[in-house]
Amino acid sequence: MNYRHAYHAGNFADVVKHVILARIIDYLKRKEQAFRVVDTHAGIGLYDLNSVEAGKTGEWMGGIGRLLAARRDGRISADAFDLLAPYFEAIAAVNEGETVTSYPGSPMLVRKLLRKQDRLSALELHPQDAAMLAKRFAGDFQVRVIELDGWLALGAHLPPKEKRGLVLVDPPFEVEGEFDRLVEGLAKAHKRFSGGTYALWYPVKDRRETERFARKLRETGIAKILQIELAIRAPSPEPRLDGTGMIVVNPPFTLESEMKILLPCLKDLLAEDNGANFSLRWIRSETDRS
Ligand code: SAM
């Protein structure tokens, strides 16, 4: 386990992933009934943008740095601005005043958006990271931090007793076979908790691989699979993180139209060259039975 998210926190992929996450949570809050978020690969929860690790890559400057600059300069359209409000709200909640020096990882972002009836289970396998995360949420009865293989949560921890909620699966993709594990994990989890919303993150590096992933997802027969991708540059000759993808199963009915507003805005803000693009498509829609 060599992957350390501190080098990448707040980069373009985090921005897109966390904006989607915040939109899903915002929707779940429309009903009074409690929900649970299960975050299978949680990380350490909070990242210092002035840390040595963040400084080494400077990735956050091409991600959250650009969004904050656009917000300051009034370059975000009013409709996108409204949809970004919960995301910005979570960032504000971990910073004092206007200056942003801390960036919330997925469990912290979720936590900042929960109501008092809602719960979070955050799993992290790296012992040091799990300990940091546990310390971060010590005494918080709404959050359970578990040092465990997140893939196991897709079996044992579902369905949640709230019977409503979101499962975020955000693996580091440092070993072979993560795309297949995502498909198998989803199939297993969906059998136990078919009404849940699932958000599966994946890197866009190799088109053949992402197409194969989409085919495999379709073959599960699971309905309502929405695919969201954003590439910040034209495909690189060598494998490189050119884009970010999210599969959302059972998305809120509002998500597709929201992403039609957000994706063009995020593309313009995050683009590194004029090969930047986005796509939004149903791998399987509600009515598609083929
Ligand atoms: N979800 C986080 C966020 O958005 O802020 C980032 C997570 S990072 C991409 C992946 C994390 O998964 C790392 O912290 C890594 O230590 C952890 N990890 C790797 N393998 C794991 C496993 N099998 N189960 C749980 N966590 C794992």
TrEMBL record:
- Catalysed reactions, semicolon-separated: adenosine(2030) in 23S rRNA + S-adenosyl-L-methionine = N(6)-methyladenosine(2030) in 23S rRNA + S-adenosyl-L-homocysteine + H(+)
The UniProt keywords, alphabetically, are:
Methyltransferase, RNA-binding, rRNA processing, S-adenosyl-L-methionine, Transferase
Catalytic residues, chain numbering: D170
GO MF annotation: an example:
23S rRNA (adenine(2030)-N(6))-methyltransferase activity
Instruction: Extract the SUPFAM superfamilies matched here.
Output: S-adenosyl-L-methionine-dependent methyltransferases (SSF53335)
Q: Which chain positions carry the site (Interaction with substrate rRNA)?
A: Y3
**Pfam families registered for this protein in UniProt:** RsmJ (PF04378)
Locate the residues binding S-adenosyl-L-methionine: H18, H41, S106, E124, D149, G150, D170
The record's section on HAMAP family has: 23SrRNA_methyltr_J (MF_00934)
Job description of the protein: Specifically methylates the adenine in position 2030 of 23S rRNA.
Subunit-level organization: Monomer.
Q: Which family does it belong to?
A: Belongs to the RlmJ family.
Q: What is this protein called?
A: Ribosomal RNA large subunit methyltransferase J
This chain's source organism reads: Daeguia caeni
**Lineage, top ranks:** Bacteria, Pseudomonadati, Pseudomonadota, Alphaproteobacteria, Hyphomicrobiales
